[in-house]
Amino acid sequence: MASFVLRRPFALTSALKQLPKATSPAARTFHSSPVKQQLFNQRSSSPVATNITNSRPTFQKTFRRYDSSLQGFPNPAASGTLGQRFLYGAAMVGGSVVALNLVFNREQREDGGMPPYERAYLNDTFLHTGLGLGIIGVAASALHRSGWSYRLMSANPWVVLGGGLVVSLGTMYGTFSTHPDNYLQKYALWAGFNVAQAAVLSPLLFLQPALLARAGLYTVAMMGSIAFVGATAKQEKYLYLGGPLLAGVALVAVSGFAPLVLPATAARTLMWSERIWLYGGLAVFGGFTLYDTQKILHHARMAQRGLARKDVVNESISLELDFLNIFIRMVQILGMQQRRK
To answer: How far is CA 112 from CA 144, 234, 260, in A?
Structure first.
């Protein structure tokens, strides 16, 4: 359970982590800005969506570090026909699978392949992971259109962090502790957990849709290839990674909170903490994807023997957290590359 507690803050603070360097002046003056008056104090018959549309240019300038034009440098994923884009994406995913399989999967299973009950359990877990991410995407879009992202940006970041952690951890542990046979309560808590993630991640929708789509594609490619390695590798080969990954995620957690507590004059320290949070986090959560995949198969074998209960909802939460943490870092990496060009 400790790994969930340490993994949880990243999906919360990572979205807001995109904001301070580029938006701290706007955030400090938001309480007295005309945008806030237009969004929250204006009482007229016009809908909220009209106010959001009118204030959109202000916030697009705020996010200009990630919102520069994609034109001016080649992007094979965004150019060419639809068939060419599909081939590019398929080649990227296939190449990642082959490369990772050659490096990490030299010792494959010796039991003749994955038995049907393991395959069914893994497929159900991936299905729930996809459904959870779909809920997060739909809820984040709805909240963003309603003006929630603006209100979230104007709030005290410590209040957002504390409130988000309380709601997320409460719904997550409530889901864990609910028996799988209690469908209504379990799925209600699981849906609440996903909506809590959407509420904090909704500011990411200020960024370009093309950038978010590319980040999502790269995240799916990375997690898909790593999960394939974990599913086809020798049984329990990577379960020993739990301890080292827990230590790694603790280090990444400390670096993630550094900008909130360190002064701006500590530039070198902040630079290294940023690199640890970004690239170290990618390595750690990629490792968690490998570990979680083998852990799911281990739980499937235990459930088949009657030693544990089947609970794909609980299993899917760990993969959702892996996806969100990798996705947010992909967004930041692509934004940094885009800004340099």
So the answer is: 49, 11, 51
Contact 169, 8 (CB under 8 A): yes
CB atoms within 10 A of CB 224: 16
Cross-strand bridge partners of residue 233: 108
Stated pTM of the model:
0.71
Expressed in angstroms, the distance from the first to the final Cα of the chain is 42
Find out whether 200 and 152 touch, Cβ atoms under 8 Å.
yes
How deeply is 237 buried, as exposed, middle or buried, from its count of CB atoms within 10 A (0-12, 13-18, 19+)?
A: middle
Residue with tokens 């410590």: 158
* pLDDT per position as a tens digit, 97-152: 555 554 445 455 555 578 899 999 999 999 999 999 999 999 999 999 999 988 88
